[in-house]
Amino acid sequence: MLPASSSSSSSSSFSSPPPDRPGLMGVTFAAVVGSAMVLAAAVLFALLPGSLSEAREFRAARSCAEIGGSVAENGDCLSAWPATVVSTETGRKNKAVTHWVTVDLSPEEPAFRIGMGGDGPVWEKLAPGSRVTVFTWRDLTWAVGLGELRQDTTTKPGRAPTVHLAVGLALLIIGAVFLRGAGRLHRLRATRAPAVRASQILVPMAATFIAVGIAVTAAVATDRLWLVLLTTAAGCAAAWTASVLLVRRLGGQRTA
Fold this sequence. Notes:
alpha+beta
C-alpha cells in the first residue's frame, strides 16, 4: 500500500496539471503585428505636420474679391468661378463610392473632373448643362455650389489630416496593445504563471476598441491637435484602468 502523502500528491498532480505555456509563435506574431502597426502610425504622424499646416492656411484664407493684388494672383485666396456641368459619373474603389462631375469653365480652357465624395445636396441636383460655381484655393477645387447649395470635394484641405490622425491613433493604440500582449506572453513562457483566463483577453480587447472609438471620434470632431491628443490620452487611461479593475474583480470572484 502506498503512503497517504504519496497518494494525495499523486491525485493532486492528476487533477491539476501544470498550465501550458504560450508558444513562441504567438509571442512572435503579437510582437511583429504590434511593431508594424506602431511603425505605420509613426509614418502617418510624420506626414501630419504638412497637412495640418495646409489646413490652417486654408481656414485663414480670405476671399479674393476682398483683398485682390498679388495674393489673388498667387491663388492664396478663395476664388469662385462660374462653370457648366459637362457630365456626371459614379466610380467605386475598395467599396468606396466617389461621384465625379466634369465641368467646363470657358471654351478656352479644357474641362476637368472634380471628385464630390459621397451623396450631397449639390450632387443630387447636378445634370449636364447645369450652371454651377467652382470654389478654388491655390490649385485645389474645394467645393462646388449650385444656387444656394454648396458641397465639399474630396480635395478640400483638412480631410487628409483628419484621416491620417484618426488612422494613426487607431494603429498606435492597437499596436501598443499587441506589444504589451507580446511582453506578457513572453513572461508567461519564462515563468510558470497561471493560465490566462478568458476575461483577461476579452476585457482588454473591449477596452481597446472603446479607446480607439474615442480617439477616432475626437479626430473627426475637432481640428485642434492638442484637444484630440488630450481626449485620446484620457480615453485610453479611463478604458484601460476600468479593464484592469474589472479583470481583477472577475479574477477575485472566480477564486472565491
